[in-house]
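hey all, quick one before standup. I had two proteins in the batch that finished overnight and I want to keep them in one place so we stop losing track of which output belongs to which input. First protein below, input sequence then structure tokens straight from the run.
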Amino acid sequence: MKIKYLLLVVTLIVPPFLFLSCSASDEAENRIEAAKIVESRSSEDLLNDLYLASDGNIESLSRILQVTPSSINRLRNGKTVATAKFEEKVKTVAIYYYQNDRRFSLVQSALDEEYGWYDSILNFPSHHPWIFWIVNIVLFLLLVIIKYIYMLYPFIAEMFIFLIAWIVSLICTPGPISDNFTNSINPTIEQIL
């Protein structure tokens, strides 16, 4: 009886560990492959890849790399050359990009603090479905109460609620990045050829 029990325990415990070790080795191989790809390419090519992956969202890319948009444009166009410190930063972000199956949204959610706020608002219904539906039901009940108390049409109350939401979104939206290096180079990021 003890042998059957021991055999049952072994068959239930060992396979998950085998799966985890295979998964860990696949992840290690993925990291090595990403590092090889990044090391074989120049920082200008990697920066262009990140720019294309971001769909031209240069502000998000500049927040991720912690530089100004004009510096990224000059580096991409070949007017200036990246410093060694900035090349390492580009390679680090590129490795993270290649390790995450070339999905820039994962890089944004991990490294861009403003995108985290945007992503939480955008995906709020899927991340917090109970809160989303409770708020919708409460708003619907408020609309019904407002309709019967003030005898207003429901679409006027809905428009009022959306107007308030629009005003709040305008107030909470961050401003554009201030770019102090539009006419001059940033010496910590780029060098003249």
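OK second protein, same deal, sequence then tokens:
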Amino acid sequence: MHRLLGLFLAVNVFFVASFAQAQATKATPKAQATIKSLEKKITVDFKDTKLGDIIDELKDQVKGVQIRMDGKGGVSGNRKLTFTGKDVTVKEVLEGLLKKEGLCYGITSNEKDAYDGSIYIRVGTEFGNLINKK
């Protein structure tokens, strides 16, 4: 009986923790729109191009998307990157540009954050995660 009760409690703790985590990482409407925009196909040809200029070009090609850099975390707009792609998704462009540089991106998902729905480039290896901290 004690084993059954222990198993029941363990399963409940697991489900409560899983539910809380799912709620914490639920995408806001703006984050959902950004996630959808990452599937847009574009053509780019960046050769030793500054990250700041790349961001400007991506924002021109994908209207309404906000892209920010973690300047305090070591991401410089002057860093030069290279990537060429024809009819590739924005997601493929970002991953192709950033991965080899030790950079990644997340998507801000917090309705209380002025940058809700923005793509946030930072140092790291995880792509497309939702960021819900302000």
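Flagging for whoever picks this up: The longest helix spans residues 2-24. The first strand starts at residue 41 and ends at 50.
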